[in-house]
Amino acid sequence: MFRYIVFSILFILQLSVSGQSDSTTVKNSPFAMFSMFSGNPGKAALYSLVVPGAGQFYNKKYWKIPVVWAAEGLALAVMINQTRSFNFWDKGLKDIASGEISSFQGRTSAQDVKATRDSRMSERDYSIIFFVAVHLFQVSEAFVNRHLIEFDVSDDLSIQLKENQAYPGFSLSFNF
């Protein structure tokens, strides 16, 4: 299951990068997927992708690092707990099916244990998706935050109401 998630993410990243590149040398490069990490926002994303919180450190948003670690730690703890629960029920199902034990956690039927094991398996899969989503969210947060840091905002942000000379009435102009 994990292989399919990783493959899907890499495939989507490759499609988005190849759709956005204009250079023919980048399109023909075997490392075209990594061209999105060039520049400062790309460095922040790459750092966060490798080490959780490193992109926030690169962006000098130090207060976000404990939040990222807490979110990733919580997602990892849930994933580990759900995996252990699934393994426990899977072993119980195998023991009942092989006849080694007659009851498992008060359940004597293999179908009851299988139903519980299947629900634990779906919870484990959802926890893996949750962990990947939290990790990708903090990567995208570092990437977008770096873009916003580098965004040039002029001091002259004003709205002016002027009389329109060509036509009767008024015009509204925005200065950026």
Residue stretches low in confidence (pLDDT < 50, at least 5 long) are: 15-26
Portion in strands: 5-15%
N-to-C series of helices and strands = HHHHHHEE
Going by helix content, strand content and strand pairing, the class is: mainly alpha
Name the quaternary structure: single chain
Features:
176 residues, two-stranded antiparallel sheet, 66% helix, elongated, mainly alpha
Plain-language structure description:
The protein has 6 helices and 2 strands; from the N terminus they run ααααααββ. It is elongated and about 95 Å long. The chain has a two-stranded antiparallel ribbon. Helices cover 66% and strands 7% of the residues. The protein has 2 domains: 1-35; 39-175. With 176 residues, it is mainly α.
Q: How would you summarize the topology of this molecule?
A:
Blueprint: H1 2-20, H2 24-28, H3 40-50, H4 54-58, H5 64-98, H6 110-150, E1 158-163, E2 170-175
Helix pairs in contact: 3-6, 5-6
